[in-house]
Amino acid sequence: MNESHITVHGYVVATPVVRTVGEHSVANFRIGVTPRKLEKTSGEWRDAETQWYAVSAWRALGDNVGRSLRRGDPVIVQGRLTARTWINAQHQEVVAHDIEATFVGHDLRRGVTTFFKTATDAGQPPAQAPVDTRDGEDTVPEPQLPSDLEDLIAGDAEVPVEKAGPADWSAPLADAPAWSGAA
Question: I need a surface site. Which of 1, 11, 131, 138 has the fewest CB within 10 A?
């Protein structure tokens, strides 16, 4: 069977809604994806038209999506792409793109996240999910960056050129364990 698979990077438009269909749970949410294009004449990057996708995540993936994603989260979604066509109230043909997700995750280029495994055994209780404190006061302190990295990110320092050379793979690692056995 031929299927179109797609990977998109975008933002969650609304907090996912988890419901039960038959014996299975499904999380439904929408994401907005705004591609950036380089204008050749000016050399500037411009935002293209935003594309909207309805995403459905089934079973354990849906449960985890419901526990993990919130409105505004940057995500990467991979799954099967389908298109629905219908005639709207203005008698115009409309095409909607849906993704049945096989993988969903936070886009770590845009922030950090914490991962908790869920139970795989029926005899094991699920891992305790963290309390969502994003709407209230954070109880976890922000990680402290080294001052030189903080200055580099803030633009107050220059990248040290002498440290940007190629790696010397022939030099032994000081803290490397001694490996024994045949290679």
Answer: 1
Task: Tell me how far apart the alpha carbons of residues 81 and 79 are, in angstroms, rounded to a whole number.
Answer: 6
pLDDT at 2: 76
What lies within 8 Å, CB to CB, of 81 at 6+ separation is 4, 5, 6, 97, 98, 99
Distance CA 60, CA 25 (A): 8
CATH topology of domain 4-106: OB fold (Dihydrolipoamide Acetyltransferase, E2P) (2.40.50)
Residue with the larger pLDDT of the pair 146 and 120: 120
Which strand (E) or helix (H) includes residue 63? helix 59-68
**How do residues 18-29 score in pLDDT, each as one tens digit?**
999 999 999 999
DSSP string, 10-62: EEESS--EEEEETTEEEEEEEEEE--EEE-TTT--EEE---EEEEEEEEHHHH
Nearest Cα neighbor of 75 from 91, 61, 93 is 61
CA distance 166 to 143: 29
Q: pLDDT grade, residue 152 (50/70/90)?
A: very low
